[in-house]
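Field guide to reading this record: the first block holds the primary sequence, the second block holds the structure written as discrete tokens, and the final block holds curator observations. Each block starts with its own label. This record concerns Putative conserved secreted protein, catalogued under organism Ixodes ricinus.

BLOCK 1 — SEQUENCE
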Amino acid sequence: MRLTACLAAAVALTTLSVIQQSNGACDVRPKPGVKPKKYPDMLKVYENGYKLTAEINVEGEKSTLFFHEYYSFDFKQGLLELTYRGITTNILYLHHTEEIFVFDNRSCVTFPITSPPKLISPLLLRWSSLFTGNNTIFGPSVLFLSPALNPAVRMTFQGSDEEVRGIQTIKWATCLKNSDDPYEVYFVDKKWNYGYGTGKTIPLRVRHGKVVTDIMRMQPYVRDPEQKLKIPMFVGCQRLARGFPKPPNFDNIPMEFHSELAFSNPTVNGQYSYTSHLDIIRDPVNNIFSHIFAPWNTGSGKLDQQLSALPETQTIFDVTNGIQYLKVPHYFGYEPFGRGKCYVSSRKDFRPVVQLPDNTTLSLLDTIAPSYETLKNANYLGIHVVRNAPVHVYEIVTTNVPVSGAVFSHAVITYCYLVEWIYPTFTSQRNLPIRVSMRAYSTNKNLKIPYFWFTANIHDISTAMEELNDKMNVMDCYDENEASYTWFQMGFPYTDMYEEFLRYSPQIKSKFLATFLRTTSLSPMRVPRVLVDITENMIYVTSLILERPLLETDYDRKKNFDLKDHQLKFGVVTLDECLKICSSADYPDCKAVAYCGASCYTSSLSSGGVDAGIVKSTDCTTYIKNDLSKKRKLPLTRDAIRKVETAVKESKFTFTVEDSTTFVVATLVAESTDDSLGSLSMTFRGDDRFGTPHSHRRDGEELDGFKTYSLKSRLLADVDGAVDLGSYPLNDCADICRDRPDCQFFSSCLVDSQCVISTIPARTSQWIETKLQCSTFAKSVKDNFELFSGISLDVGARKAVMTINDEECARLCMVETGFDCKSFDYCGQAKDMHTVCRLHDTHLREFGEPSKMNKKSLESCMHYSKKYLYDFKKSASNKTKASARTVIGQVTAEECAKQCRDATFLCENFDHCTGPQNLGRGDCMLYEKVDGAGPFQTVFSPICSSYSYRGDADLRSFSNQAALHSNATAGGLAFFLLLLGVGIGVSALLAYGYYKNRRLNRV
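BLOCK 2 — STRUCTURE
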């Protein structure tokens, strides 16, 4: 600090503050005839305070010391500005806190008033009075105040004297110890009309030998209008006193604000200034930080070419999960990022920055958006006025400058917060920030100004997090496909409030989103779109869910390694799908996966750890969960949806709609859900058994309707029964096989999408070949049958064969051509193993008269009845052109088929009409077949499917609702229940009762 020159020149004044009477050669006797006059008491003249301008000259020397002094008796604090040979030093002193701040334009040193530096101490005047208590003054005013405050000093009135600077004066004088020169104080003579704004007594000059102090101007100073008596900002003054207000803590308060940035670096950019705009969102609930930064602009000069090419960017940090989204809009001049793109990356460190015009970068967390841990030790500089508002000012001095790209000695960061009694009407939050400034200082001490300065003026502050999913929309970071996008719809029933809900639709959207995020633990970025559709009796809310990003970074990759033990196996999956399996909540014990070609294997690594759980393999790469996977809280979309479905089933997904007075208008309770997981692009699935979209969802290890026959294999296309269909993805290939009754097997490949189907029910290894990118699947026809819990007592069959399991038996029933197979019994404990699988041409068996049966020949079997929907042929997008005999509401197509088969009239045709808004359930219309009438005609209908019966009705009695069973049947069953005992009897009775009573009430 450059204080030495100024203070050395001022030391000539040091003896003046301790005036003592002298008996030397000094003679201050007044002229004859001059009457004594009391020395002016300036403290009474300027009772609130004063400011003055003075200069000190030494006769015979060509140097001048300039002063500006301010003092407030109200605040008991003052400021002295000294300028000597172009160097300015400031001394601020606060009597109440006993602090002295000595500062220039780049540094500040603090001293206690009770122990000031020796160079300064003689310039201080401390006294005590009955009315004002203890006081302290420092500066040239001490020269004319000391005589009035020291009762031991006798100032002799000299009368009117010569003019000083053309002004008539009166003079007092005294003699000092060890000095022959008198100490003379000149005041303006009141008889002289000086007329520049005051009639108070004004000191004009103090002379002592060759040292002449001229008071150029002195006037009252009240309430510090120039803010001269504030602790200076930007120079790093430290506080010695304690007990000041602490800075506000916003760590747990959501905050969104805009700020205008200003920057200047005279060292690099000259005197040009630059401006920009910065928007910040900090959401502590989800631990998300977002900032949008606009390019720098300047009114003069030229920006660096690279800097001027930067577009406006948005950077979003998911802090908890260590993920950064960088959004770059459509911008022609910025080639490195392309045009309108978004980039996702895994970041261990969370350090949002902005680039400054001098090509350095500024850390936002250490400047504009600091944590309380950073702020709590800041120095309190008191209340200042900033942007015409009173603010609390806090300051941090740090040698760890939050700027990269240059070397600095230190930086001073200043924070301004509104005082408690000033706050915007739109929020009740106090002490909102309105400005953050930083001055960075070079290691070059000869540099008199900051290396650069930076200011952010903050405005439009909000503590309510609204529409974050839109403000932090990261849809551009994802490819628009079914692996990344999932549409999810929820239905909320209501009555008689259609117009009200139309008005409240924005509130419904925001309340739904808050409840949805809370239920699913998803971040706002994962739900970028929410659509509200209000019908006459339902509110449908549709949301777009983005998949969990950067899943691969949760795993450590080990190439050419396989898992020693495989727990789950999946065929024809991508690496992303394989990792999702292990990360799913369905498999919490999964610790690693092996990806081999296009097959996925999981392991819990429960025995021996990682090294013991993997083996060398040239075909596989193993992925092992790392520590990041444990820290991240990123549910998969399927897991998030499952949480919502559970909440809906338990009637716990609710939210209220309120009017402007917060009166609850309605409480909405979710009733239904639907989603597009595994569906065709941008469509919802249906619950129709033959509808392809829903079958694309993969539950567990298996495709819907199929069992994995062999991984890393492919059907040979040149053998009997095999058909090479060309290139079809897995789901499409499965759809083809599912829709073809003769298809029993298919193989699919991930890379080339080769699809091969086989119509032969049984296959052996000679019909398949090894292929890493492929897998072979067998149609799971058992799912087409309904298993009746209980035991079937089989006494006969249309056909009996030997099979290895019930799946093969079901397959034989489906492909049987000799008769219409509608059910089968699987008798695993059959006496004759060639009759394990027994096929029937009815859904349930007729046993006849019990007395005629041979009890010894009866065997216990499991009965499977083909689902009734398979008795009908489907015609999609068609509706029967006739009047329905019966209409049943809100049932599935399978339930509708059963109602047609159980109808008391001859029903061979039915329609099932549904749409996305019905979430898979719809109207069932049954049509009566009139004897002699021709087939029903159909018309096009986008939401209906028409079904017609494939064959003749079996054992139907239209006068009895128990059409498939006679009284003898029931009697026979009851008889055998008694024979087999109570245990088996109860089981069989339940089975029969289950079938008899599965009827829906007609409407």
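BLOCK 3 — OBSERVATIONS
The domain at 692-779 is CATH 3.50.4.10 (Hepatocyte Growth Factor).
The first strand starts at residue 49 and ends at 58.
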